[in-house]
Amino acid sequence: MSAFAGFGIFLVVLLGLFVLRTPVGVALGMVAVAGVAAFVSPGALSQLASLSFSISSSFIIVVVPLFIFMGEILAATRIGGDLFRATELWMRRIPGALAVGTIWACAIFGSVCGSSPVTATTIGSMAIPQMLKRGYDKSLALGATAAGGTLGILIPPSIPMIVYGVITDTSIGHLFIAGIFPGILLATLLSATAVFTAVRRPEMAPPITERPTWPQRWKALGAIIPVLCLSFMVIGAIYTGLATPTEAGAIGAAGALLIAWVTSQLSRAIIMRSLDRTIRTTAMFLLLLTGGFFSSFMLSRLGIPQATSDALLSLPVPPWAIMVIINLVLLVLGMFMDPGSIIVIVIPIFLKAVQNLGYDPVWFGIIVTIQSEIAAITPPVGFNLFVLKSVTPGANMRIIARGSIIFVVPMLVCIAILTAFPDIVMFLPRLLLGIK
């Protein structure tokens, strides 16, 4: 059986299990175990057991519950509201100020939270009612929040970056640092889209006539200083080499508890709820990661990554054109698969071709993360869309999707810019960590 025929069978069976609502991690594991037994050899199944133990006992995995816990604790406090208040006060004179403030509040919160849905929910719970109260079009209010929420996985820390790093054996610290400039660039492009919409159609974002005083601005800014300090501590510890990503996660979790305690927002109920959500999310993460490694093992033994690389490299087109093809594939898959599934199933197949084209795995990790952001806001399975529908009374999926889809354009523009100028991604890792 050819490699691509085996891959075709793998995809058909996997999609069938998805249709039956089988959890992604379970479906990946089932198909991989059956595939190894049928197409490789029954004796190779013992290697899957060793692989499973190796993954679950890896020290780097400890970073996942730590960053999740940090984000959950902060999401339970008033930090989200303080961030939105500060950003919208400082940007009050800009057209579409509330939408722009929402995007930058998401960007700042994303620096202490590695989850896109948590970021969108935390900031959206404060921002969306305020935008609707001020007469903003519902699609713009929901779209800006959904798109801004995706910054939670591009600006470090980032759970998808951790998944990518573990799956591809890429330094998570390098990925975190590489995500900073692209995160700022994307936040700027999303903000420009909101401003353009407000200028082109003022009725969608009525201007705010009240002008805040400077004391109000400084007071609002002072309320978010703790979260900014926590962000600098976590990322700074990685930059300077004082801490590994795992150790930085411990600093972040402790810092989040301290902020909640100092601001008198820490309670036993908040701790227990945050621990419960952390345990559930970590369990799903480990199951997905294990299933992903199983499928990667099977596909590697079938020679699919090498066959894919050979097929792509044989195309009579320049490297950037091949990257366009890969991005189009990721874009289409993102409409029907969640970001985690894309990373663990598809990325190991494309990675070898990307490296043979001369692109750095760290750079590709950032591109994949932006594609994961697009997947989070594109119907029919965009997770941020469903999250906002559940937390916004009266919102329907059509309105949310219509508002979100316009923000896919700046995300694609960001990918194009980073492809044309990869040094935007690699500058900080090279400067601070000395990588080539």
Count of strand segments: 0
Helix content: over 70%
Number of domains: 1
Mean pLDDT: 87
Given as residue ranges, the uncertain stretches (5+ residues, pLDDT < 50) are none
Order of helices and strands: HHHHHHHHHHHHHHHHHHHHHHHH
Radius of gyration: 22 Å
The number of helical elements comes to 24
Calculate the terminal CA-CA distance, rounded to whole Å.
40 Å
| Major sheet characteristics | none
Shape: globular
How is this structure best summarized?
This protein has 436 residues and is an all-alpha fold.
Explain what you see:
The protein has 436 residues and is mostly helical. It has one domain (58-266, 302-433). It is 76% helix and 0% strand. It is built from 24 helices and no strands. The protein has helices at residues 3-19, 24-40, 45-56, 63-75, 79-90, 97-110, 116-133, 138-149, 159-168, 172-178, 180-200, 214-223, 225-239, 245-262, 268-301, 304-313, 319-334, 339-345, 347-356, 361-377, 383-391, 397-405, 408-420, 423-433. Helix 6 (97-110) packs parallel to helix 8 (138-149). The longest helix has 34 residues, at 268-301. The chain is globular, with a radius of gyration of 22 Å. The mean pLDDT is 87.
